[in-house]
Known about the structure:
Blueprint: H1 3-6, E1 10-13, E2 19-22, E3 25-28, H2 32-44, E4 47-48, H3 49-56, H4 62-79, E5 84-87, E6 90-93, E7 97-99, H5 112-117, H6 133-163, H7 167-180, H8 185-197, H9 201-219, H10 225-236, H11 241-252
Amino acid sequence: MTTQAKRSRIEIQFLGQVQVHAETGSIVINDKKAILLMFVLAVRGATSRQQMASLLWPGTDAEHSQGSLRLRIHKINRLCPGLIQSHLNSIFFSTATGHDIGFLTADEEIPISVALDAHRDNLIGALDFPENPQLNAILSHYKNQLVSKSTSLLYRHARAAATSRSLDQAVYFLNRILLLSPHNETACRNLMRVHVLNGCRATAIETYEAFRRNMRESLGIEPDSKTKRLHLDILSTQEDPEYQTRISEALDSMIL
């Protein structure tokens, strides 16, 4: 059996506080550069030393940035022996390493537990790096991926719940979407429809008012014409069976 095969599995947690989990225990990573180094390896795979050094220490001469990179790799491997490997000029994780953000770079469905908590902005502990635009652009890209995949999955769950008339569940998932994307008008409209169908007309109106207030305060704009029209329809329609039917049909065909 090879040394690689004998190596125990290491799992890196990038959602929430960054931690490394191994057979010997869990280690919290607090060093921002070490976190970034590991994050880049997780989403990009093998990376040249020059690319990594210039990404983490922009504006620093090659000798100092390469020295800083070697020091970070040494510190990480001292905590987790063998975690970061190298070959020629490339660095990469050992094959015994896994992490919790594979869905960001592969055609994998995001776990529902992650989607439900995505509004917390907890990718690598919600760190940002205003002094490093290139790194911030990379982080923004993957945060947007997290939001997009979470919204898509939550919407599928909301639609399935509404179609089966599990209306409380539909409300739950649509509210999670609005926590994640507070200006999502489609989610707002469908949440209003679910409330009406669930016999909670007043709550549907309150949902619109809260959404409108948020749009005004955060963006300085009003909801779009579709959302306004739905609000007016709900205000002007009481216990109209035909309107209830139209609401039900709209939910059955809801799209993101």
